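Following up on my earlier thread - several people asked me to post the actual chain instead of describing it. Fair enough. Here it is, all 381 residues.
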Amino acid sequence: MDTKKLTTELITRESYNALLGYIGLLPNPDKVLKNTGKTIEAYRELKNDPHVWSCVQSRKSGLLSWDYSIMQYGASSSIANELENIFADIDLQQIERDILEAPLFGYQPMEIVWKTTSGNKRYLVPEKIIAKPQEWFFYDSNGKLRYRKSGEPKGIEPPPMKILNVQYEASYMNPYGNALLGKCYWPVTFKNGAIRFWVNFMEKYGMPILLGQFTRGATFEESQKLADELANMTEDSVIVTPGDIKIEMHEAARSTSIALYKEMIKHCNSEISKAILSQTLTTEMETGSYAASQTHFKVRREVILSDMRLVESVFNNVIGYIVDLNFGNKVYPKFELIMNDEVNIDKVERDLKLSQTGSVRFTKQYWLNNYGFKEEEIETN
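Reply from S.P.:
Thanks for posting it. Predicted structure:
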């Protein structure tokens, strides 16, 4: 048997499409961007929509209130303590906000700016971690992130330990990830169209139509003067007619038309909520059963936990860089977010019931790993 075929990748993008290997650029396969001819910047503009912005803030706020802890996981306590001090000097909440842009756009490159600390112990640590615009980067035919540097048609590969490549639901076929804002593009577009038609409808039928009448013997100047005076009163929708000519005005079915616009806007907002939050109850306060509300909040919890794992993986990459640069230790502490009571209550109740049975005893390491305790805070018999 030819083992080379087993140990090398044979099914590649280049073998399927030789042009990809030549140009070195893997286009973003996002269907909305391809069909509209727009760039990913179009998704950034969607945040101007109030409902999109509300959903984005709601999704991020579910995680930003959590505390964090540096877990040892076999590493020395001195390294864990040093990492605690390093992370205390970083704006973690802003970094978390930027990390959570990845689910919205599919990917979010973030640049680490390093600095050397002063004092007896001089470490190379992150001074800041900055989110950079997605359109400044692309993926090559090998699925590697590259920077679109001016004068470099094929871009450049970022230096090691410089760019955090945050991806959301990326795959071999699509390293650009799954952009949730792409699911909102058409609902926002249709909603804006409905709002525009609604405004036009109100301009046309919302103001009263004034009927000006004059005798047939009136001159043109007199009728024009009357029309001008009425126009000054209403700025639109003016009718001037001789008194002996009867004109009937039929008002539009306003309530029916308004209901259509409202239903269209409501439907689009619901689709936006489902795309970003995977549920609608937390942004659209409607009546519903207790069971339905529990289902919605369970879905919200699962979304928060998914975002939690994404944030933790990014910060653990940063910890890996810091340890490699400064300590040379291949046993890495872990960054873990501490769940708030709303999310953590099930786990606490489970552990409490198991402990009360007397047949289950949790180890010291379990409490350290799962509840954010420090080693010196736990005493064992």
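Strands lie at 67-71, 107-116, 124-131, 137-139, 145-147, 163-167, 210-214, 238-242, 334-338. That should answer part of your original question.
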